[in-house]
Automatic annotation (TrEMBL), chain A:
GO molecular function per UniProt: ferrous iron transmembrane transporter activity
Keyword Nuclease: no
Tagged with keyword Membrane: yes
Transmembrane segments: 36-52, 72-91, 103-126, 138-162, 169-193, 231-251
Keywords in alphabetical order: Membrane, Transmembrane, Transmembrane helix
InterPro entries per UniProt: FTR1/Fip1/EfeU
Similarity annotation: Belongs to the oxidase-dependent Fe transporter (OFeT) (TC 9.A.10.1) family.
Subcellular location: Membrane
Main location class: membrane
Protein name: High-affinity iron transporter
GO CC annotation, single: high-affinity iron permease complex
Automatic annotation (TrEMBL), chain B:
Keyword Repressor: no
The species this protein was found in: Zhongshania antarctica
Lineage: Bacteria, Pseudomonadati, Pseudomonadota, Gammaproteobacteria, Cellvibrionales
InterPro entries found in the cross-reference section: Cupredoxin, EfeO_Cupredoxin
Record protein name field: EfeO-type cupredoxin-like domain-containing protein
Domain EfeO-type cupredoxin-like: 10-112
């Protein structure tokens, strides 16, 4: 029980924790306020309990694939929020101007949705096995250890990203956000395949040298949505999502540079 | 900028719809799995190769379980006393292990595609 509980909690916490640490460190580097974070986290925690409680009716909706469709919807929304927030931050790096509330809302929504998705599963797991007297100690010690490891990882990552000079940190942070956002699309597509809204198949099999159930595979899964045997449709949409984000970020970086130096060339 | 964003959003939606339209909507063969006392029955499920199937997983326990398989790329939470639907395949012939993430030691099984 203890080990199972640690593994489940870490797997769920890592993804949201990584997102939080990248966004917070980028804000710190750019002297953007971080107050939005607590609202996002709070909304996420409340949402996770609500989503977890409604899981029964969500699952049976849409002919039995409601869980997949709502998951995919959440993941697409996270991608869009990250795309919007990241291009704003990249522009802001070159051309400092007062920021609008939309950016803070987008970042808070991204965090809230990530916490809802991961937190609801933790809620379902903990509330289901809470009733079992014998395993309760293992369940909760496992959960505490899992949360501890997840949050330590988040803190380490946050300070590591702060240790870079701003230009490098913004570049590195943007690349990481692109990978995390792409991972959301990859996992969202997996849900659509499971619901039979996208065709299944196997583009390649990298499970022999990087298995999904090994430690590096698990870490990569939690951080960037790694799949050892992705479907062709998943890969195609993933590549499109990453390319769209990279293009947007590059254009906005240049636009920021141009706006910062109004002298005609 | 917002124009570029909305164009990108629209393109994504169109791409998804096109892909959804190409998947086959014909009735698929249906298979059942049961979870009882944190065990899958049958522990080995034989399905036709290269055919998309509907897999209904009935959770007869009072506790939830997460059906998970790295080989099949599937994961789905099934609450206690509920059933869940997963579409699987078309699978090349072979063995595809799955397990229950909430009880990984006991809840194990495999799909044999032949």
């Amino acid at each position: 029980m203890l080990l199972t509980s640690v593994v489940i909690i870490i797997r769920e916490v890592l993804e949201a924790a990584l997102l939080v640490s990248i966004l917070l460190s980028m804000c710190r580097q750019l002297s953007v306020r971080q107050g939005w974070f607590k609202w996002g986290a709070l909304a996420g925690l409340l949402g996770a309990v609500g989503y977890g409680q409604q899981m029964g009716s969500i699952s049976s909706a849409m002919g039995g694939v409601g869980q997949e469709l709502s998951d995919a919807g959440i993941q697409l929304l996270i991608y869009l929020c990250l795309l919007y927030s990241c291009q704003k931050l990249v522009f802001h790096f070159n051309h400092r101007q007062p920021l609008n509330t939309t950016l803070f809302v987008a970042m808070a929504v991204a965090i809230a949705l990530a916490v809802i998705r991961e937190g609801s599963e933790i809620y379902i797991y903990l509330s289901a096995f809470h009733g079992n007297q014998e395993s309760r100690l293992g369940l909760y010690s496992g959960a505490v250890i899992g949360l501890g490891i997840g949050f330590s990882f988040c803190a380490l990552f946050y300070y590591w990203l702060l240790s870079f000079r701003p230009r490098r940190a913004v570049f590195f942070g943007s690349m990481l956000l692109t990978l995390v956002a792409g991972g959301m699309i990859l996992q969202g597509c997996k849900m659509l395949i499971q619901a039979d809204y996208l065709p299944d198949g196997q583009a390649w099999d990298s499970s022999s040298f990087l298995p999904e159930d090994g430690l590096p595979g698990q870490l990569l899964y939690a951080m960037v949505g790694y799949e050892a045997t992705p479907a062709p449709a998943q890969v195609a949409i993933y590549v499109f999502a990453i390319a769209a984000m990279l293009t947007t970020l590059t254009l906005r970086y240049r636009a920021g540079l141009k706006a910062a130096s109004p002298i005609e060339q | 900028m917002s124009k570029l964003m909305s164009t990108l959003g629209l393109a994504t939606v169109v791409a998804l719809l096109l892909l959804a339209a190409t998947s086959v909507w014909a009735e698929k063969p249906s298979f059942n799995l049961e979870i009882r006392e944190h065990l899958f029955t049958p522990a080995e499920l034989r399905v036709p190769a290269n055919t998309k199937i509907k897999l209904w997983v009935y959770n007869r326990d009072s506790t939830p379980e997460e059906f998970e398989s790295y080989e099949l790329n599937r994961e789905k939470v099934i609450l206690g006393g509920q059933k869940a639907l997963l579409f699987i395949g078309p699978l090349p012939a072979g063995e595809y292990p799955f397990f229950g993430e909430f009880n990984p030691k006991s809840a194990q099984g495999k799909i044999i595609s032949e």
